[in-house]
Design brief:
The strands form two sheets. A four-stranded mixed beta sheet has the order 1-2-7-8, covered by helices on one side. Strands 3-6-5-4 form a four-stranded antiparallel beta sheet. It has 17 helices and eight strands. The N terminus is likely disordered. The radius of gyration is 22 Å and the shape is globular. Strand 4 and strand 5 form a beta hairpin. Helix 4 crosses helix 5 and helix 6 crosses helix 9. It is of the alpha+beta class.
Length: 452
């Protein structure tokens, strides 16, 4: 690597700052949505030497110090790798890559096509809605339990007037029904749900291996306490809202279980084809009848418009509340209830959901596999293969089966957490990839800023 790589961490932090929708929570590392670089800048090469994702599959007993060392590296890696997979290897992720491709390859001398840059620009801004749309009350106590209900609103247009694009909010209350938080269900809500669920499972797999029983009990208890603190942090509800909805819907008191179940539904929403959105919208009266909503009510109109916009947050919500309230007795019953819920919307899981997802993915891949941006073509190829591996199991992933790039560490060195020969992204030059992609990003954002 060249000497320029010494500043690569700082360059990525600077160029991604305005777009990073996870900066409130991903403080130890990040996935850069515009360059596809996974960066764990809180770690340096000595701390990850010899550590790979395969360490999570071991059942060998370890001491507390070893557990802490592995957790520091692997829990963070799993979290950011899950963002990489969801943003490149789900159907939503492949659409994201296609929008990126169209924006980055847009030629400078054809102004009639510049709109694709602004479309991608707006897409990035909507990953996490601006802070204005989240309200946190300082007036009332935030003690558990929290209650919640759905409300709706609309995005404001650039001229400051209400637009037609709906926003689904969840309002949280304390047990006295005093309002605590209003949080949107955004795309980033689904993405962070999946990453948190994967992170928690990675942590639990390591905690179970602590040999000393007392140390294992204490460490596990501390982990579960921290999970609850995250879940009930009023300032982070846009990231945890999906887990809250699941906890309330299925009467779950364990944070890790709520995140796991929410991640399953989130993955189904992220892999939903445009045909599935259209079918759910066509049969949405079934949902309205089940929850007691009239078709003409404002909430019903907002849900219909959101589904018409192919909003994965809206799909997450209606699937969650179409499922049986006792579905989370065990993983099998949960999966069965999800399949039944989709069938009630007219979507046969294998014939309609999985088939149309793969058909749409194939169509997207056909467009971007020959992208003039080598990084996009390479990541799209890996993502398409990853999706084909995941789609049959509700989209749930096993990272050691995925194609994953190396990560960039805080000392500007690369580390391959997945060095297997089958990994098509092993050893990718992150510096070259970043500088290639940053050119497209800069051109896109300069034009996006010019649209006033």
């Amino acid at each position: 690597m060249s000497d320029l790589n010494n500043t690569l961490v700082k360059k990525i932090k600077a160029s991604s700052a305005r777009w990073n929708p996870l900066r409130k929570v991903d403080t130890l590392g990040q996935f850069d949505f515009n360059t596809c670089v996974v960066m764990l800048d809180s770690l340096e090469s000595p701390s990850v030497n010899g550590v790979t994702l395969s360490d999570l599959e071991s059942v060998e007993k370890i001491d507390l110090a070893t557990c802490e060392r592995l957790m520091k590296a692997l829990v963070l890696a799993v979290h950011e790798y899950t963002h990489f997979v969801d943003s490149t290897s789900t159907l939503w992720g492949l659409r994201h890559l296609r929008m990126m491709h169209r924006a980055y390859v847009c030629v400078d001398n054809d102004e009639a096509k510049f709109h694709v840059m602004r479309s991608y620009y707006n897409h990035l801004r909507r990953l996490k809605l601006p802070q204005y749309y989240t309200t946190v009350s300082q007036q009332f106590i935030t003690d558990r339990p929290w209650l919640s209900r759905l409300t709706t609103g609309r995005e404001f247009r650039p001229d400051g007037k209400p637009g037609e694009r709906p926003i689904l909010f969840v309002r949280f209350y304390n047990e006295k029904w005093d309002p605590i938080v209003r949080s949107p269900i955004s795309t980033i809500s689904l993405l962070e749900t999946g990453a948190m669920a994967a992170e928690m499972e990675a942590a639990r797999s390591l905690l179970r291996r602590i040999e000393d029983e007392d140390q294992r009990i204490v460490a596990t208890s501390l982990f579960e306490e921290n999970a609850f603190e995250y879940l009930y942090n009023p300032n982070l509800t846009e990231y945890s809202v999906c887990a809250h909805l699941v906890a309330n819907r299925f009467n779950v008191s364990e944070a890790t279980l709520a995140f796991w179940a929410a991640s399953v539904i989130a993955k189904v929403a992220l892999n939903a084809s445009l045909d599935v959105f259209a079918t759910v919208l066509k049969n949405i009266r079934v949902y309205f009848a089940g929850v007691g909503l009239r078709y003409s009510e404002d909430e019903a109109k907002a849900i219909r418009r959101a589904l018409g916009n192919n909003d994965p947050g809206a799909l997450f919500y209606v699937i969650c509340f179409m499922m049986h309230g006792d579905a989370l007795k065990n993983p099998v019953s949960f999966g069965a209830s999800l399949v039944v819920a989709m069938a009630r919307f007219g979507v046969h899981f294998e014939k309609n959901y999985e088939r149309t997802a793969l058909d749409e993915a194939q169509s997207i891949f056909a467009e971007i596999k020959e992208s003039s941006f080598d990084t996009i073509a390479r990541v799209a190829s890996a993502g398409f293969e990853n999706l084909n591996k995941m789609i049959g199991g509700f989209g749930m992933l096993k990272l050691t089966d995925m194609h994953l790039p190396p990560v960039l560490l805080g000392d500007s060195k690369q580390h391959d957490f997945h060095p297997a020969d089958i990994n098509k992204l092993k050893g990718v030059d992150l510096e070259a990839s970043y500088f290639e992609m940053s050119e497209g990003q800069e051109r896109m954002q300069n034009f996006g800023d010019a649209c006033i």
